[in-house]
Design brief:
By secondary structure, the protein is of the alpha/beta class. The chain has 3 domains: 3-78, Alpha-Beta Plaits, CATH 3.30.70; 81-156, THUMP fold; 178-386, 3-Layer(aba) Sandwich (Rossmann fold). The protein is built from 14 helices and 16 strands. It has helices at residues 19-33, 57-64, 83-101, 121-135, 188-198, 216-230, 244-253, 259-277, 297-304, 320-330, 333-336, 343-346, 358-367, 371-379, and strands at residues 3-9, 40-44, 47-52, 70-75, 77-79, 105-112, 140-141, 148-154, 158-161, 165-169, 178-182, 202-209, 236-242, 283-284, 311-312, 382-386. Strand 12, helix 6 and strand 13 (236-242) form a beta-alpha-beta unit. Adenosine-5'-triphosphate (ATP) is lined by residues 182-184, 186-189, 207-208, 267, 285-287, 291-292, 294, 342-344.
């Protein structure tokens, strides 16, 4: 193994007694996503290492930059705890940094976790700083706006590195149990998935398909979105519910203005059941307050009343532009905007209710007598696993 990465964690470091639970999960997630590379993942108590052969470094960097729980990571040089060796390596990295940045203003940071090392962190900074000033003409110490920084850590051995690449932060996927995402083909629900994975939820998805009113392409689009999302969620089950009969019955009964809300309530009812059958303890949707008629407080009260599971709506306070910026960052936007109709827009009333009366619309839902159709839809649900390559 010729390449070593040092991983720094973010919020996990604030955990108390159950910190090792979070750390173990992080290691497991990294190993899972890097299977096939023969990498070695080690460490604990705030610092992790991935050792890998050079040919896999692009893959490692791609995985670490999207693995929740990681604050940042660096390619590091491992050395014995000898100040002369550390200085020698610092001078090599200093020359490389000058080539890369074209600048000579620098900063040294040092951490001494091993207190038996003869120099304290200030002493290490001074020793390295002096060596660089002596050996590199026109170099200047600049702690506020350096062109480059050399970092030293003294632990069981010494580490020297210059670059810290950003991780996504958050908590390792799987540390908050499992949730069921209502995944449509739109822009919002994939972003909701990413945001809740970031808080440690393991996520499976459920999609309501209204064939032939929504096409096979629309279904494939949702599969493609789930495949992209599965990179962040360490794999994902996708449940595809045949929803046509439910949808048609709602339409046929003719509470015209309430159609979308009744249909959403039915979706949540099925999602609740599939979630509970598969050990998911929460639902997730891409709703944002007042974005459309079905997302007013009164509408959300009714659609949300179809489940007693907590429903996470991480986009609730976000503008569309903010949501799109995340969709672009996580790579779902281009797929989301492919022009296949979703079932909701096809069956949407011309003048949808925005402020339903809760008692009245609940009564209308009961009058639909959907139980049998909901049972059948849940029973005929298809299950796919994505991200298992
Ligand atoms: P999105 O961009 O996620 O489709 P949207 O702005 O189009 O959201 P709606 O169509 O009102 O909003 O849907 C609100 C939420 O309901 C979606 O974010 C998603 O969680 C869920 N949802 C809507 N349609 C479906 C569907 N066919 N299958 C699964 N979930 C759905
Ligand atoms: Mg939609």
């Amino acid at each position: 193994m010729d390449k070593l990465y040092l991983i720094k964690i973010g919020e996990i470091a604030l955990k108390g007694g159950n910190r090792s639970f979070f750390e173990k999960r992080l290691k497991k997630n990294i190993k899972l996503d890097l299977r096939g590379t023969n990498c070695i993942v080690s460490g604990g108590r705030g610092r992790f290492f991935v050792e890998v052969n050079k040919e896999h470094s692009a893959q490692v960097e791609e995985v670490l930059s999207r693995t929740f729980g990681i604050k940042g990571f660096s390619v590091v040089k491992r050395l014995e705890k000898n100040i002369d060796k550390i200085i020698e390596e610092a001078l090599i990295q200093a020359s490389e940094n000058i080539k890369e940045t074209g600048g000579k203003n620098f900063k040294i940071t040092a951490r001494r976790a091993d207190k038996s090392f003869p120099l304290n962190s200030y002493g290490i900074c001074c020793a390295l700083g002096d060596a660089i000033l002596d050996n590199i003409e026109e170099s200047v110490v600049d702690v506020n706006t350096p062109d480059w920084t050399i970092n030293v850590e003294i632990r069981e051995t010494a580490y020297v590195y210059s670059h810290v690449l950003p991780g996504p932060g958050g908590l390792p996927v799987g540390t908050a149990g499992k949730g069921m995402l209502l995944l449509s083909g739109g822009i919002d629900s994939p972003v909701a998935c990413w945001l809740m994975s970031k808080r440690g939820l393991k996520i499976d998805s459920i999609y309501f398909h209204t064939y032939p009113y929504t096409s096979d392409e629309a279904k494939q689009k949702v599969i493609d979105l789930a495949t992209i999302l599965s990179r962040y969620t360490s794999g994902m089950n996708l449940y595809i519910v045949p929803f046509t009969d439910v949808q048609l019955k709602i339409k046929e009964k003719g509470f015209e203005k309430a159609t979308t809300l009744l249909m959403r309530h039915a979706m949540v009812k099925i999602a609740d059941r599939v979630a509970k059958q598969n050990d998911a303890g929460s639902l997730i949707t891409g709703e944002a307050l007042s974005q459309v008629a079905s997302q007013t407080p009164e509408s959300i009260r009714f659609t949300g009343s179809a489940t007693d599971l907590p429903t996470f709506r991480p986009l609730i306070g976000m503008d569309k532009e903010e949501i799109i910026a995340i969709a672009e960052k996580i790579g779902t936007f281009k797929t989301s905007i492919l022009p296949y109709e979703d079932c909701c827009s096809l069956f949407a009333p011309e003048h949808p209710l925005t402020h339903p009366n809760f008692e009245q619309i609940t009564k209308e839902f009961i009058e639909l007598e959907l139980d049998e159709l909901l049972n059948t839809a849940a029973l005929e649900t298809e299950k796919l696993y994505l991200g298992g390559e």
